[in-house]
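Tip: read the tokens left to right.
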């Protein structure tokens, strides 16, 4: 599915959410105001907020379809994250305000809501609609790889529990005369806050930049390493510029004796294969490895055995040794979580120089992106 087709699907799924939540909002506000239930009114406002969220997703999908330009060469896909972040701040305000007003209401003498048949009908319909749309949105979001839609579906399922809580409150009022309307408002407010903070965390991760889905990354890596002439994948960088727009680069190892035209063929093939999978490779970095021989294999085996003793070094790659055997170099990948990784690199070089005193040894660092 290309990015434009995906954005049309996002609009289609989200439009259903807008329609459902507007209907629920109107119904809840009418019933809540007529019977004096603050909880039902607040749940109606929550439904309105959900419809606004779906509308933002639709708007961001329209903007994401805007063609790239000189100022934004990678398009406008990240509008989706910006709108989600702004909306998250809005619903956190709603949730916080609801909790404050509910707590104040506990200390004020206000008339209890008069629940009737319509309150049960509306909240039951809300629970069914929220569950149905929740599964619909989550399934659609996974199908088209849209985290915002998956999050909307999860929020809809959480809202179903809110509707259930209000129904329990109605039953408690009818059977035992318990007025728990304000407590329900506090519960709804907490649920709204939970959703808002969850959305902020998700959006900030996307804006700051996180590792791409491991399944997608492994799929691309396997595709590259299966290409004829590729010995190993040293590094793979993938940047997310909005769902459906992934830009990246890869560093590969090839036979050090390959000619330029063969390297060009490999680079062209990899870029074409990646594009079919939804990734634009802007560059293919090449590092050569020596032809395998008993001597070079023995040296590399000693190096690898030494590297494995350093916990702050994850792996080594791209081994090169000059024909005269006086210089050798390779790359290591350092563990971001190990504070001693940089020191271990120096210790590794010192140890290898002792093992191979006649050689000039250079150990380079590469980014841990695989």
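Filled-in amino acids:
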């Amino acid at each position: 599915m290309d990015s434009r087709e995906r954005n049309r699907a996002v609009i289609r799924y989200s439009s259903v959410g807008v329609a459902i939540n507007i209907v629920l909002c109107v119904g809840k506000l009418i019933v809540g105001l007529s019977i004096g239930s603050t909880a039902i009114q607040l749940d109606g406002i929550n439904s309105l907020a959900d419809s606004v969220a779906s509308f933002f997703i639709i708007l961001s999908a329209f903007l994401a379809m805007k063609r790239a330009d000189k100022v934004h060469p990678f398009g406008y896909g990240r509008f989706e994250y910006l709108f989600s972040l702004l909306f998250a701040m809005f619903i956190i305000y709603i949730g916080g305000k609801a909790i404050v007003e509910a707590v104040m209401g506990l200390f004020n003498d206000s008339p209890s809501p008069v629940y009737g048949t319509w309150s049960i009908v509306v909240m039951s319909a809300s629970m069914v609609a929220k569950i149905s749309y929740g599964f619909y949105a989550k399934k659609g979001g996974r199908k088209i790889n849209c985290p915002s839609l998956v999050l909307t579906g999860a929020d809809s399922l959480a809202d179903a529990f809110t509707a259930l809580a209000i129904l329990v409150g109605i039953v408690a009022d009818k059977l035992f005369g318990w007025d728990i309307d304000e407590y329900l408002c506090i519960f709804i407010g907490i649920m709204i806050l939970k959703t808002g903070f969850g959305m902020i965390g998700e959006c900030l991760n996307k804006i700051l930049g996180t590792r791409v889905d491991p399944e997608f990354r492994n799929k691309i890596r396997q595709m590259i390493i299966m290409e004829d002439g590729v010995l190993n994948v040293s590094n793979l960088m993938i940047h997310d510029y909005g769902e459906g727009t992934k830009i990246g680069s890869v560093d590969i190892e090839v036979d050090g004796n390959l000619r330029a035209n063969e390297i060009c063929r490999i680079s062209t093939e990899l870029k074409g294969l990646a594009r079919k999978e939804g990734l634009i490779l802007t560059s293919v970095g090449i590092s050569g490895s020596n032809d395998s021989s008993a001597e070079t294999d023995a040296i590399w085996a000693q190096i690898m055995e030494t590297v494995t003793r350093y916990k702050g070094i994850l792996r080594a790659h791209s081994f090169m040794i000059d024909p005269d055997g006086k210089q050798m170099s390779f790359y290591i990948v350092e563990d971001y979580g190990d504070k001693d990784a940089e020191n271990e690199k120096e210790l590794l070089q010192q140890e290898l120089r002792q093992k191979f005193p006649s050689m000039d040894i250079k150990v380079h660092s590469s980014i841990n992106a695989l």
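The longest helix spans residues 3-35. The chain is about 65% helix and 15% strand.
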